[in-house]
């Protein structure tokens, strides 16, 4: 149950949702990677894992709301597994349920050198949103965002 913020009562938490997304976490802070099939969700997750992130979920991510946080986790049947195209299904150390701190949308391409702050609403919570960047530093920038946030 959640407070409605008005002091007038308690509203039920939204039901868990499963979304077509991959998710990794660094130091307890997760990024949800959205995009159409074949867009590179697993590939970006693997790059982030190579930089030290832990796997939360690949391809299907279960979202739940706990108080004012959106939590991401893997369905039990795919926990600790990630697809690497042309390699196979790989094992990854599962992070477990992790609070989302960032969303990356691979279907949208960033055109601004210094993009405005964007957000996406998930389960009634506004979360920071980044659009896809085909730059080689994009995975490192996402990881740094998870570590220290954005300065502005």
UniProtKB/TrEMBL annotation:
UniProt keyword terms in alphabetical order: Kinase, Transferase
Every HPr kinase/phosphorylase C-terminal domain range: 17-91
GO MF, any single term: ATP binding
The keyword Repressor appears for this protein: no
GO BP term (any one): regulation of carbohydrate metabolic process
Record Gene3D superfamilies: P-loop containing nucleotide triphosphate hydrolases
InterPro entries in the cross-refs: Hpr_kin/Pase_C, P-loop_NTPase
Coiled coil: none
Domain of life: Bacteria
Transmembrane annotation, as ranges: none
Protein name (record): Serine kinase
Organismal lineage: Bacteria, Pseudomonadati, Pseudomonadota, Alphaproteobacteria, Rhodobacterales
């Amino acid at each position: 149950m959640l407070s409605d913020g008005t002091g007038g009562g308690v509203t039920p938490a939204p039901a868990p949702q499963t979304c077509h997304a991959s998710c990794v976490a660094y130091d307890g802070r997760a990024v949800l990677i959205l995009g159409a099939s074949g867009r590179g969700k697993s590939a970006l997750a693997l790059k982030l894992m190579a930089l030290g992130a832990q796997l939360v979920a690949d391809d299907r991510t279960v979202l739940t709301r706990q108080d004012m946080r959106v939590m991401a986790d893997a369905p039990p049947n795919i926990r600790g597994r990630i697809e690497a195209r042309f390699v196979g299904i790989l094992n990854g150390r599962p992070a477990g349920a992790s609070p989302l701190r960032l969303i990356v949308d691979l279907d949208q391409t960033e055109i601004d050198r210094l993009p405005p702050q964007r957000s996406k609403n998930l389960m009634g919570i506004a979360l920071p949103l980044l659009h896809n960047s085909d730059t080689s530093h994009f995975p490192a920038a996402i990881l740094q965002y998870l570590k220290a946030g954005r300065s502005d």
